[in-house]
Amino acid sequence: MQKLKKLFYSVITLTFLFNVNLPVNSTEKEVRVYSGRHYNTDREVYKKFAEETGIKVRLIEAAGISLIERLKREGKNSQADLILLVDAARITNAAKAGLLQSVESASLENDVPFGLKDKRKEWYALTRRVRVMVANPKVVDVSKIRDYTDLADPSLKGKVCLRNRKSPYNQSLVANQIVNKGESTTKTWLNGMISNVSQPFFPGDISIIRAVSKKKCGVGIVNHYYVARMLAGVNGRRDALYAKRTLVITPNPAHVNISAGGVAKYATNKNEAIELLEYLASPNGSKGLAAPTFEHPLNEVNQNSIVKDFGEFIPDNVTVEDLGVNNSLALKLMKDSGWD
Ligand SMILES: [Fe+2]
Asked: For residue 26, what pLDDT band results from cuts at 50, 70 and 90?
């Protein structure tokens, strides 16, 4: 009897220990994010999400293209729950490669406007960015530059700077023009614009802004937030001075691109991934991502005065899906025109 009593108490003690110790780890919810958004300020948004929901966010950051390659390589063994990418070309390519899965979410459908989400519900936009022109008024007549197509004008011979063909930002811009103006008009534009380029294609948008400022060329095409960040001094005093010597020209209507997110095909924490995606696409979440990076939230315009000075932008009606569909044709036309 004594022995039985001892056994009974030790079982009770073990059960107690089990209940106290195990749940802490086993019920701790988390979501693993593979992010191609390389902005430290995103961490603040993840922190708020974790505080509000108790779901821990584990962040794995990488540049966009290597992220897709990595996911392809990892396949079913991937740790990713939520995938965040910048640019229409990248997110639509990720979907095409079967790296995402569709989700049912009324709040995502409600918060993300038409044209900025996938018909198959595999990805949703989180922020918006405008492809603008940046010009040096001392080199070019800025009154004659209103649209991307104006960069094909023969008067700009040797004065146009462009980022290389690999950049998805430009691929999406060309895809946008194919949808807006048709293939043959886009070809003519590309041939004219590329013949105005007199120096090697640039590796990034920031180097274009610097070159325009230094009068190495007169006009280039960049995402608006790069100029805003330089003006705000995010990249240091020298870049702020460079940016001050340039003028941003926002075409009307303008090509608007996105950063977007989708739940990974093999997510182990699918519900948590949906919850985080919903949070990031919500008015507060989108604003939390976009405000400090000078991007635009999904349904509003960035209220920072630097961004406001770039002028009102009116998005054209090209959907992100259309940009994805026309990505390979865009690449072909760019190559044919000599865009390296
Ligand atoms: Fe960027």
From this structure: low
Rounded CA-CA distance 95/197 in Å is 34
Q: What fold characterizes domain 129-255+307-337?
A: D-Maltodextrin-Binding Protein; domain 2 (3.40.190)
* Structural tokens at position 116: 């900025």
The C-alpha atoms of residue 286 and residue 292 are separated, in whole angstroms, by 11
pTM of the model as a whole: 0.90
Residue 39 CA to ligand 1 centre (angstroms): 10
- Which CATH number is associated with domain 2-128+257-302? 3.40.190.10
How many A from CA of 311 to the centre of ligand 1? 20
Distance from Cα 32 to the centre of ligand 1, integer Å: 22
Determine the distance separating the centroid of ligand 1 and the alpha carbon of 85, expressed in angstroms: 10
Residue spans of the domains in the chain: they are: 2-128+257-302, 129-255+307-337
Render pLDDT for 70-91 as a digit per residue (tens, 0 to 9): 999 999 999 999 999 999 999 9
Identify any residues that bridge with 202 across adjacent strands, giving them in sequence order.
163
The whole-angstrom separation of Cα 76 and Cα 306 is 44
Distance between Cα 126 and ligand 1 center (Å): 14
Distance 105 CA to ligand 1 centre (A): 28
